[in-house]
Amino acid sequence: MRDIKFRAMDFEGMWHEGSLVQHLNDGMAWIYAEKHKYDPVTMGYIDSVIEETEVDIKTVVQYTGLKDKNGVEIYEGDIAVVSSDRGSVKAVAEFEAGAFVFGSTGLVNKANIGDMLDSVNVEVIGNIYETPELLKEQ
Length: 138
Fold this sequence. Notes:
With 138 residues, the protein is mainly beta. It has one helix at residues 113-116; strands at 6-9, 15-22, 29-39, 44-55, 61-67, 73-75, 78-84, 87-96, 99-103, 111-112, 121-127. The strands form two sheets. Strands 4-3-2-1-5-6 form a six-stranded antiparallel sheet, with no helix packed on it. A five-stranded antiparallel sheet has the order 10-9-8-7-11. Strand 5 and strand 6 form a beta hairpin. The protein starts with 5 loop residues before the first strand and ends in an 11-residue tail after the last strand.
C-alpha cells in the first residue's frame, strides 16, 4: 500500500509535504506535517509537533507512491525524463482515470507510471510550477 500524502506551495514559495485539509466552500487549504524535535543531550527525537501551513490550492499535488531512478518521490506535476533504448522524452506526471500516468507530446499514449518503471528509466528534473520551461526544451 502506498503512502497517501500531498505537496503544496505556501504563499511565500516554499514547498510543504504532509496531509491535506481543504475547505470546499472557500477554497482554502492546509498541509499538516509531523515534525520531530531533536534532543542533543539524549541524541534522540523528542516531542512530535504537528505543523500547519496554509498553502496555495492551485499547487496541491498528490504523491504517486513511486520513486524515480534516484529515489526521488514522484508527485503529480513533476517533469521527468523518460528514457529507454528507443530514446527519451520529457513527460509530466498526471492523475487520470484513476491512475497516475505520464503525459507528453513525445508519447503517443499516456502511460501508467507504475507499469513504466520496470521497462524505462525515469528521472524527475523539475515540476510545472517552478520549472515549466523544461517542457519547452523538448
